[in-house]
Amino acid sequence: GDLTVYCEDEFTYFSPEAPRVANATVTIVNLDGSIRLSKLSDENGTAFFPQIPESYWSITVQKLGHSVFTETKKVDGGGRTVRAFLQRELVTYTWVVRQTEITEKYTFELQATFVTQVPAPVVTIDPMYIDLAELQLQVEALGETTLTFTLTNHGLITASDTQITLPQTHEYIRFDGNPYVGDIRANSTIIVPFRVYDNRNPLVTTSTTTTITTTTTSTTTSTTTTTTTVTTADLATTTTGGGGGGDGTGG
After folding, report:
1. Which is it for the CA torsion 152, 121, 210, 125, positive or negative?
2. Are the beta carbons of 237 and 230 closer than 8 angstroms?
3. Phi, psi (5° rounding) for residue 6?
4. 0.70 exceeded by the pTM?
5. Which one, of 205, 249, 202, 230, lies nearest residue 98 by Cα?
6. What 8-state DSSP symbol labels residue 186?
7. Residues with Cβ < 8 Å from 89, sequence gap 6 or more?
8. CB atoms < 10 A from the CB of 246, how many?
9. Residue 12 carries which DSSP code?
């Protein structure tokens, strides 16, 4: 039977033109691995495999800047159509380690690269990571402190059901606030505060969420950088959860 694979991403559903993904690599392998076929999707985002033997086929679709799609489907004499959704990687994070002029001291930079003004949600968070060792020192000195996150949607589509995930099992510090952000409208920013306190002496408080509307004027790729400097002796604590700098945060 015939196998037709339609390669799709967020733009297929959110853009008025509904483009599919062209030049994606589509590879199919039959059940016993004796047949392996591969081709690129055409300008319409379609890969067509005519008259392949009846079997279960492993289907893999790949395109740079997208997630990998993989699925197993049976193709019989009646043919088969598969819609392969490849999530766009609209935000990427990269750790950069730079040695300073001071012996045994290094600078860790976390860089976020993202696109703007595209028909998809593109959410970034600032700060991009938490130095738990430094935060613990603040809490021990002050009793409690406030940690504020800024979430920005650079895309043209609302980001739905957004939430912030914070560590819940730290030995000394606890985060008090509402991790559920909800919807972030296109080209808007939400500020989410958390109270951070010593969990050995908890207090009751209430956190609030403030929304600020912003605008972006052009389609572009942007990069933001967060930097922290540590010594070799600090690495055991400050690199927890991200290769350098503390627990990461997610939206």
Report:
1. negative
2. no
3. -100, 120
4. no
5. 230
6. T
7. 65, 66, 67
8. 21
9. H
Burial of residue 178 (CB within 10 Å: 0-12, 13-18, 19+) is: middle
d(CA 239, CA 228) in angstroms, rounded, equals: 11
Which of 19, 6, 107 lies closest to 59 in space, CA to CA? Answer: 6
Give the pairing type, strands 3-8 and 80-85. Answer: parallel
For residue 119, is the peptide bond before it cis, meaning its omega torsion is within 30 degrees of 0? no
**C-beta separation of 246 from 128 below 8 A:** no
Buried b / exposed e over 35-73, threshold 16 CB at 10 Å, is: eeeeeebeeebbbebeebeebebbbebbbeebeebeeee
The H or E element that residue 7 is part of is strand 3-8
pLDDT recorded at residue 132: 85
Confidence of residue 240 (pLDDT cuts 50, 70, 90): very low
H or E element: which one contains 14? helix 10-14
CA 41, CA 45: separation in Å to the nearest integer?
A: 5
pLDDT at 45: 96
Neighbour tally for 12: CB within 10 Å: 19
Count of residues for the chain? 251
pLDDT of residue 167: 84
Residue 238: its H or E element: helix 235-238
pLDDT band at 39, cuts 50/70/90? very high
